[in-house]
Amino acid sequence: MSETIIALPRRNKRIVLVRRPEGLPQPNDFRLIETNDDDNNNDDDDDDDDNKDNDYVLLLKTLFVSIDPAMRGWISTAKSYLPPVKLGSIMRASTISKVIRSRSMKFPVGAIVRTEIVGNNNNNNNNNNTNTNTNLSSYASYLGVLGTTGLTAYFGLFNKGNPKPQDIILISGAAGATGSIVAQIAKHVVGCRKVIGTAGTDAKCKWLEENYIVDIAINYKKHKTTKSLSYAIRNASKKEGGIDIVFDNVGSTFLEAALSNLSSNGGARIVLCGAISQYNNNGSIVPSGPRNYMNLLVSRATMTGFVVFDYQKEYPNAIQNLIRWIQNGKIKHFKEDVHFGIENFYPALVSLFHGTNQGKVVLQVSNENNNNRDNDSNGRDNEHRSKL
């Protein structure tokens, strides 16, 4: 029998969606709720727990919560690949948790697992969950380079970008969590001829170039118009014949500028991973798309979207490849921007949209980590029950 686990909030702190944002999410869109529904139960009484928890095989303590740009889409009613988080429900998120009670041989007490909080009232969700058993220095990395972030980079690049050593690749958000992994795979695993990235500050561009993550970094904020950004991309790529792969995390002006610089050889691939520049538009703003989409036709190019969850069956092989590339130094740079305490969920979330984050944004809610600081004010705050 194949075992899956479901993370169900037990007690006693949780972030709940109470209002649909219009534009950039605001603090009052969320509420921190504290409950004490188990205070009258004696957790040291195993018989009582067994009678009470017959449906459950795991009790998990949440250690880290992944903070992702996709959360903005999950709290919107716009059509998407997942149903929206319901009002009054816990925020959907990927987590790293510790097994503190178990009836499953697959997940012994003390195991560290990756799981999900699903964001609806009945918390009914089936997820394949795995033990995290590599030698990374921080559990938070299992939400980053070995979590959805790294897997998104992996499947977007290989399954949709189909990279080759002779390719020139252009990556938006190249200093971000996903973009930086895409760039390192393209440059150091595939050996692409040239890797070009965009970022929002000179410091980020310097970091990208000095650490050999990209060959050329472009500060897009220095280019106030699509024409100016397009010219900068052209200068970086046209000597070699234009762009063969575009990996887009941003959308809007960047995408239009990229479409103006596709390879003259034909067959360019545009991979749509995200459009963070558009996520916080309010209802009065019509999302902007590329006006020059006919360049896809004349350049014989393709533009394809993807959702990483479609590749769940392939996760184990992808993770093994990512581990190998980390161990042999192909992937060296995967920073976690760790915020401490569940109370800081909102600042962690909006840091993504202000561009102030430095790497993968993670919320640490417990002190059970092998490399991060103690921040658990109440060791019982972050427990979850799970069942098969």
From TrEMBL:
All copies of domain Alcohol dehydrogenase-like C-terminal, residue ranges: 178-322
Gene Ontology molecular function, alphabetical: oxidoreductase activity, acting on the CH-CH group of donors, NAD or NADP as acceptor
Pfam families: ADH_N_2, ADH_zinc_N
Superkingdom in the source lineage: Eukaryota
Alphabetical UniProt keywords: Oxidoreductase
Biased segments, Basic and acidic residues type: 371-388
Stretches for region Disordered: 27-51, 366-388
Domain Oxidoreductase N-terminal, residue spans: 13-116
Acidic residues: compositionally biased ranges: 35-51
Record keyword Cytoplasm present: no
UniProt key word Oxidoreductase: yes
Protein's name in the database: NAD(P)-binding protein
